[in-house]
Design brief:
Layout lengths: L1 E8 L6 E8 L10 H27 L9 H21 L5 H8 L3 H9 L1
Antiparallel strand pairs: 1-2
Length: about 120
């Protein structure tokens, strides 16, 4: 288990807070230096950002949402991620924009995909 503690200070108020994040790894602690562990973790989350959030935003306009309801946003993000996974699984040889174009005005096909 790896624990990363981050400290942040709000410039306007001077208020400082500390946050701990926990990670699990098969590697033994002595296999990497602290700097290497941080690089691994940052690389992982950078990949998550590119693979998931960027695709949801670029293909589905996620950042244009005007809602600030955290539960709604989390649920819709989960649905979008699931849909992207289904699309890439069922159409592995087609680019996502092309699949999106094909499904754009075919709600019955979209529902069939979700029910599969």
């Amino acid at each position: 288990m790896i624990v990363v503690r981050s400290e942040r200070t709000v410039k306007k108020t001077g208020q400082t807070s500390t946050e701990s994040r926990y990670y699990l790894s098969r590697a033994l602690p002595e296999e990497h230096t602290d700097e290497r562990w941080l690089k691994q973790i940052r690389g992982h989350w950078g990949g998550v950002e590119v693979r998931n959030h960027w695709r949801r935003d670029a293909l589905m306009g996620e950042d244009r949402s005007r809602s600030r309801n955290a539960n709604l946003l989390a649920n819709v993000a989960l649905i979008r991620s699931t849909l992207l996974a289904l699309l890439t699984q069922q159409h592995p040889d087609q680019p996502l924009p092309q699949i999106q174009e094909q499904l754009h005005s075919r709600p019955n096909r979209c529902l069939a995909l979700l029910n599969s």
